[in-house]
Amino acid sequence: MSKRKVYAKRLAIVFVIIIAMFIYSCTEQNISNAKSRPYESLYDTLAISNPLNSYDTIGIIHNNGLLYIENNIQNISCENYTSNIGYYSSSYILSNFPCEDSTEITNLSDSLANFIDSNQGYCFMDSILNYYNLSSNVKFKLNNIIQTLKNNSDTTNYSSYIILIKNWENTIINDNNINSNEKEQLLQFGSVARYSLYYWWTIANSGSNPWNQVLAGCQGGKIKLKDHNSPNIQFLGTDFSSYSLWYKLLCVAISDAAGAAKFGYIGAIVSSAVTAVIVFSSSK
Prior knowledge:
Distance between the termini: 76 Å
Structural class: mainly alpha
C-alpha cells in the first residue's frame, strides 16, 4: 500500500473519531445542560423524576424551556403568541444546546406552533394520536396510558397521575416486543407527561405566576370551530372553559408529551406553551 493511501486511510479514521467525539460531546452537553438547571433536586424530592427512564432528561429540558419562556413572557402578545412562543422556544434550545442546527430548530418551532394553533382539536386527549405519523404499536401504547389517566378517580393532586405514568413507563422499559425507536418515543412521552403535569399544576395553583396573566387574556380556552370539518377527530366540545382543572392539565400534558414523542424536546416545549394558551381560560 502506498504512503499516500496509508495517509488517506489514517486521515479518514481520524475524521471519524473527531465526528464521534463531537456527537458524544454534544450528547453529554445536552444532558449536563439540562441537569445543571434549577429544580432538579426538587423533582427528585417530589418523586417527579424516574431514574429507570433513560429519557428522563427530556422532561427536565421541557420544564426548563417553559421557565425560559416564563421569564420572557412580558414580551409575548396575544396577537402574536404563536410566533412569540416559537421564537422563545427555539431561542432557549439554541442558547443551551449550540450543537443543534439553528435553521432546523427555528423552522420546526415556528411550523409546530402554527400547526397547533390552526388545528386546535389537537388539544383534545382523544384526538392527539390522529395528528402525528406514529406507528400503530406506539399509538396503541399511548392510547393505553391516555385512557388510564383519563379514568383516574384521584384528582386531589398530581402524585397519583405521576405514579400511573411511571408504572406505564416501567412496562414499556421491560417490553421486549417494542423496537428501540418506538421505545424512545414512548419513554419521551412518559417523561414529558410527568414533568409537564407537575409544571402546569403549579401554574394553575399560583395566581401570581406570569403565565396566568397571559393565559387568561388570550384565547380564553375557546376552540376554533373549523376543526369540526375533519371526520377523524373526536370532539368533546368547543369550549375548554367548561372542563375541570384536571382535564385541562391532562390535555396540556398529553399534548406536549405527544410533541416530545414525535419531535423530542423542541416539540415538547412548543406544544406545551401553545396548547396551554388554547386550553386554559380565566375561570380556573
